[in-house]
Amino acid sequence: MTDLLQLVLSGMATGSIYALAALGFTLLWQASGTINFAQGEFVMLPAFTMLGFMSVGLPLWAGFVLTCVLAVVVLGWAFKRGIADPLLRFGLMPVVVATIGLAIAMRNGVRAGFTAEAHPFPGLFADRMFHFGGVTVTLVDLGTLAMALVLVFGTQAFLAKTVTGRAMQAVAQNTESATVLGIDVPRMVFYTFAINALLACAAALLITPTYLAKFDMGEPLGTKAFFAAIIGGFNNSRGALLGGLIVGVAENLASAYISPAYKDAVALVVFMLVILFKPQGLLGRREERKV
């Protein structure tokens, strides 16, 4: 039982990272109908950007702040204006194809322009362990889970409790009605892209110390985040959290009790089962989008 609890807690820590990336999927879909298959690379690029800032002598916190600013400009504004806005007028498929191409370009660009080697990344938490009734938990797992939950629930609170957040939700539900009500629709959509960029930076800060900075680190992360978003419900931000935790725990248990070779396959299996029996996701809802 203690081994099971340790695996579940460790899986929840990993799953919370998937939840951050999955939340970006759900936010972009709700606000603009965009599906970004470069979401994993949106986490990879800030990791290398922070390494670049630290290589010239800046501390981690300063590198993180500067990376967040650049991410809002490049992964938020430039991505919206350069890819999402011009292609969405032709439907969803051109955006999907473009973001897949963007992901490939970002991976190859980092490999060619920076390095193909994996690089260590400074951790936020000390290498300490805690013992609770026979269960050993690392400070890294506890800290990662706590910070990810704060970010997810903080984003939900912003959307639900603030005027700007409610305006963003209104735009997501019906852009025509939001325009009639005087809401600046383009600005609200940009805010969503900016929040997605900031969440990607936070995910990079939390996941890279464990998985190292690698040019291809975004590919598996993006895939599992997409699975998590579908499992939880693509139009429900709370579903992103649920889906991320399910994927993280399931792959941890599969690795321990079946084989590490099936670690990645279990997320696909859960994804397929949800698609077959509850296509809208565990917490999702059927929707008719009006744009």
What best-fitting shape do the alpha-carbon axes yield? globular
What distance lies between the first and last C-alpha atoms, to the nearest angstrom? 50 Å
Major beta sheet summary: 2 strands, antiparallel
Low-pLDDT regions: none
Helical/strand content category: mainly alpha
Q: Average pLDDT across residues?
A: 90
Number of helices: 11
- Report the C-alpha radius of gyration, rounded: 19 Å
Helix fraction by DSSP (H/I, runs of at least 4): over 70%
| Spatial order of strands in the largest sheet | 1-2
What is the string of SSEs from the N terminus onward? HHHHEEHHHHHHH
- How much β-strand is present in the residues? under 5%
Count every beta strand, where a strand is a DSSP E run of 2 or more residues. Answer: 2
Structure commentary:
The protein has helices at residues 2-32, 39-55, 60-88, 92-113, 139-161, 163-173, 175-180, 185-211, 218-232, 237-257, 263-277; strands at 129-132, 135-138. It has 291 residues and is mainly alpha-helical. α3 packs across α8 (185-211) and α5 runs antiparallel to α8. The longest helix has 31 residues, at 2-32. The mean pLDDT is 90.
Short description, anyone?
The chain has 291 residues and is mainly alpha-helical. The protein has eleven helices and two strands.
List keywords for this structure.
single chain, 291 residues, mainly alpha, two-stranded antiparallel sheet, 11 helices, 3% strand, globular
Give the topology, please.
Elements: H1 2-32, H2 39-55, H3 60-88, H4 92-113, E1 129-132, E2 135-138, H5 139-161, H6 163-173, H7 175-180, H8 185-211, H9 218-232, H10 237-257, H11 263-277
Antiparallel strand pairs: 1-2
